[in-house]
Design goal:
single chain; 332 residues; alpha/beta; Rossmann fold; 7-stranded parallel beta sheet; two-stranded parallel ribbon; 13 strands; oxidoreductase activity; SDR_fam; NAD(P)-bd_dom_sf; oxidoreductase
Length: 332
Amino acid sequence: MLKKLSDQVIVITGASSGIGLVTARMAASQGAKVVAAARNEAALKELVNELKGKGHSAIYVKADVGREEDVNRIAETAIKEFGGFDTWVNNAGVSIYGHAMEVSNQDIQRMFETNFWGVVYGTKAAVNHFKNRTIPGALINVGSLFGDRGTVIQSTYAAAKFAVHGWTESIRMELEREKVPVSVTLIHPGRIDTPYNEHARSYLDQQPAHRGMIYPPEAVAEAILYAAENPKRDMYIGSQAKALQLLGALVPRLTDKLMEVIMYPTQHADRPSNPPEASALYHAGYGMHERGTNVGWIRSGSMYVKAAKHPILTSVAAAGAIAWWASARRRR
């Protein structure tokens, strides 16, 4: 049994913008004590002052999750200030837009330090803490729809997220066999309206951006905080994330062709790309922005997340719909 969120201390990496920022604000509003971590110290200070000004408990740790010593310091600070933590969210990440053969090995290695090694370091820090205290806790790793299915243009990012998915599934089985008191959840976001694209390293002539159906960061935060209280294996944000995973598994060659057609025109806006030095690959990006500059239909939420939070009601509704359909067919 996991604690109620109002009784929890929650660690969130990448908390200075986007999904991490929204999750920190939402967690605090529901009574959790927040440990916010990121590279942008000015943004973290502003966030913590904002939360404290509303009567919430929060601290920050300036940290680069690609450095193991920084990640360990996040855990040590949470233990020192709050006596421990109950949920650890590995959310920090950065992308690269460009063809795999054109992206430099140095850039790929740096991205893996953040996107993969940051998850590894965070996992070990969290699991060691949960082992030592023997009270159940939650480990939540933020993956991607591109961790379930490869893509073009963000091919190197997809590779890093595939690694995160494989790590999460494998560590879950090992911890279960060892009977370690930890719930391990993998979050599968679809396209989310955050500054993710503005922070990305771009090899494109045009600015990276999402086009098409886009989900709000609040939907991801909702899924993360649900998993903090309720053991869940996977949480998909948006039907597009689940549909792509299923399509890729059932008809991989058709999915290849669809991705080749759809993904090239839907990953950039009609304006010049930001220069390489503006990206957050090697240094902190701008903070305190929840949303990005994407182009498309931005949904108000995710019905798929709502359904995952109420599986029994969803199953009953689905069974009712099937029964109605069958009855209608018989009448015809």
